[in-house]
Design a protein that fits this description.
By secondary structure, the protein is mostly helical. It has one domain: Cytochrome c-like domain (Cytochrome Bc1 Complex, Chain D, domain 2), CATH 1.10.760. The chain is built from six helices and two strands; from the N terminus they run αααββααα. A two-stranded antiparallel sheet has the order 1-2. The longest helix is centred in the first third of the chain and has 18 residues. The radius of gyration is 16 Å and the shape is globular. The N and C termini lie far apart (51 Å).
């Protein structure tokens, strides 16, 4: 019986997580710090030395997961960890929605 209830609860929770999306318009405003590095084609961070990856048009789910793991300290990059620690879950979803909606040349590398 316990397993049945747990299974039903988990099945109800998964669609809610899958449907979670951010507000791209709000994300555009919240992502102003992101464009400082990711908005410069070919930019390399000076410390630590790191080629800044392309994030414009990146998959929404990937962006959310990346920001969450930086925020939680599971992904190692000092600058990104510090940036992500200030973000709420809604901020992460909004920023990810905006970045996922972009194409190269529209504001973020």
């Amino acid at each position: 019986m316990k397993h049945s209830i747990l299974s039903v609860l988990m099945m109800c929770a998964v669609p809610a997580l899958a449907d979670a999306t951010g507000d791209a318009a709000a994300g555009r405003i919240k992502a102003s710090t992101c464009t400082g590095c990711h908005g410069i084609p070919g930019y390399h961070n000076t410390y630590p030395t790191y080629k800044v990856p392309k994030i414009a048009g990146q998959d929404y789910s990937y962006l959310v997961a990346a920001l969450q793991t930086y925020r939680n300290g599971e992904r190692d990059h000092r600058t990104m960890r510090l940036q992500a620690q200030s973000l709420s879950e809604q901020d992460i979803q909004d920023i990810s929605a905006w970045l996922a909606s972009l194409t190269l040349g529209t504001g973020a590398q």
